[in-house]
Amino acid sequence: MRALGNSNDPGMNNHLGLATRGRLGVVDIGSNTVRLVVYDTPNRLPIPIFNEKANCGLGRGLQASGLLNPEGREEALRSLARFVGLADSMGVERLEMVATAAVRDADDGGEFVEDVRNQFGFSVDVLSGDDEAMFAARGLLMGTPDADGIVADMGGGSVDIVELTKGKFGQTATLPLGHLRLPEASNFDTGTAKKIIDQAFSDVPWLSHGKGRPLYAIGGSWRALARVFIDQTAYPLHVIDGYTLSRNKARELGKLITKLGMGTIESIPDIPKDRTKTLPFAAMVMARLLKRTKASKVVFSGFGMREGKLLTMLPAQLSGQDPLLSGCAGMAERTGRFAITGQEIFHWIAPLFPPGRDAESRLRMAACMLSDIGWSEHPDYRAEHAFLRVLRLPFAGLTHAERVFLAVAIFVRYNGDPDNPLVRAVSALMTDYDIDHANTTGLALRLAHTISGSAPGNLARTWFEVGSNDLILRMPKDGSIGGGMFASEAIERRLATLGRALGLNGRLG
Predict the structure, then answer these.
(1) Number of domains in the chain
(2) Distances (CA, A) of 426 to 45, 240, 269, 394
(3) Cys-Cys with 36: which of 83, 134, 336, 384 at CB 3.0–4.6 Å?
(4) pTM for the whole thing?
């Protein structure tokens, strides 16, 4: 078997530290699951290309015995054998293993780490509680660089908490309130669990710093909780990352979950079976944490400790990139037909929009990068498929309103009608201004691809003049080479439509 890189083995680092040109893997040995995630890193911020977990339950029974679960330990080693083999066959150039609360706290955790080293040749980085909290926060910051509030990562063995002040790390705490440990410590009694939770939180006085600020929720149990909330409120977008609830609504729903019977919880779609028994305890921890911090809202994150660990494996020039634009650029490279770039389109449509609005400009740039994403779809379903694909982008750095903006812009670019029921179902997540902005962006993208044929270099030969009443598209004179390619009925029609959206008379000039 080809040797894989391991950051804890100095002899291997030199030759595998250049993994930005290949694939990186992270094995997360948690209290409940063992998971392998493989990321593609072709000079862009990585996106997962493989993600598999095994429900091992290493931390089950730890509260009483002080030892790793024997069956879970055996299953974990069996899963690691599979993951190491898969990573090798996938061409992973650097594979890192990290372990969290169960291995950290168990009396035989060191023996388990030695077993892994002896069987697979890998060191396991056993994270401290502070390290775990910091990695989780780094994962959040990948998409929300100015996050300001309390970050809480719930695993099977612990809840790891860190304060962020405009993206800067503050105090940390690790509490034995994981979704496996808490039910065992309370003998599955919710009244006892409530007392354990409140006592643990009372030992962390700085939690009061969360008053009026967001609580960022990370971890599989809280992602499962978010799925329940989405289902119970008929929320229109089934995307966990960026899903936000007010403090009062989250507490209300959390209390509801703690009172639901197992049959009701098990009937809710998309909830992993291994989470159903402990979900009421996860909900209780969130509700009590909200009460303690007086946070203004809960923001759920689809990114956490594994992504935070991954960022430490990347060169600074990659880890510092905007995750949305970097991801869109990578997707455009893989899916585009020709060499036209998002930058070329962005600069061409720039005169149509107010200058200097950074957040809006960022979204328009992302839309430009994604504007050829649906070319290979069946024409009858191109708009719909592109809309759904963009709405569910696996990238960090997007609020739900921004997801809808991009999806609507690309839908309109492919001749979709903004009044389509598919769009109306999620358009309530945007303001009226944002809806108009997305529609105008989509119409501009449609015209750009019509004029250029989606080929590079053509747009630069035309330009807009925006007057008080007219939107004039200037083009080469008829006598120039290829000048006739910029005049057609389709161009005139789509220019007129774009002009109307701007309240102007669109015409060729």
Answers:
(1) 3
(2) 28, 15, 20, 18
(3) 83
(4) 0.87
CATH number at residue 20: 3.30.420.40
170-182 per-position pLDDT tens digit: 999 999 999 999 9
Q: What span, in angstroms and rounded, lies between the C-alpha atoms of 201 and 171? A: 14
Classify the phi-psi angles of 149: left when phi > 0, otherwise alpha if psi is within -120 to 50, otherwise beta. left
Helix or strand holding residue 39 (H, E): strand 33-40
**How far apart are alpha carbons 444 and 368 in whole angstroms?**
10
The string of pLDDT tens digits covering residues 472-493 is 999 876 545 455 788 899 999 9
Separation between Cα atoms, residue 48 and residue 39, nearest integer Å: 4
Are residues 366 and 488 located together in one domain of the fold? yes
- Ranges of the chain whose pLDDT falls below 50: 1-3, 5-20, 43, 479, 481
- Strands 33-40, 47-55: pairing is antiparallel
Closest to 420 in 3D by CA, of 388, 444, 389, 392: 388
Is residue 92 domain-shared with residue 187, that is, in the same domain?
Answer: no
Which residue, among 71, 66, 38, has the nearest Cα to 52 in the 3D structure? 38
Rg, C-alpha atoms of the chain? 26
Domain end, chosen from 111, 126, 141, is at: 126
Contact assessment for residue 451 and residue 489, using Cβ atoms and an 8 Å cutoff: no
CB 486 within 8 A of CB 476: yes
Residue 401 vs residues 140, 172, 212, 242, 426: alpha-carbon distances, Å:
18, 31, 22, 9, 9
- DSSP code at position 402: H
Note the Cα 357 to chain centre separation in Å.
24
In a domain, 318, yes or no: no
What span, in angstroms and rounded, lies between the C-alpha atoms of 85 and 91? 10
How far, in Å, CA of 470 to CA of 17, rounded? Answer: 56
Same-domain check for residues 152 and 209: yes
In the chain, what's the furthest Cα-to-Cα distance? 87
Nearest to 142 by CA among 216, 80, 194, 209: 216
- Indicate if the alpha-carbon torsion angle 381, 407, 366, 23 is positive or negative: negative
Element (H, E) at 38: strand 33-40
Spell out the long-range contacts of 80-84 with Cβ–Cβ below 8 A and sequence spacing 24 or more. 80/27, 80/29, 80/34, 80/116, 80/119, 80/120, 81/119, 81/120, 82/54, 83/27, 83/34, 83/36, 83/52, 84/1, 84/4, 84/120, 84/122
C-alpha 464: how far from its chain's center?
36
Are residues 183 and 205 both part of a single domain?
yes
Hey, what are 261's tokens? 């019977």
pLDDT tens by residue, 290-346: 999 999 999 999 989 998 998 888 877 666 678 888 888 888 887 878 778 999 999
Whether residue 15 is contained in a domain is answered as yes
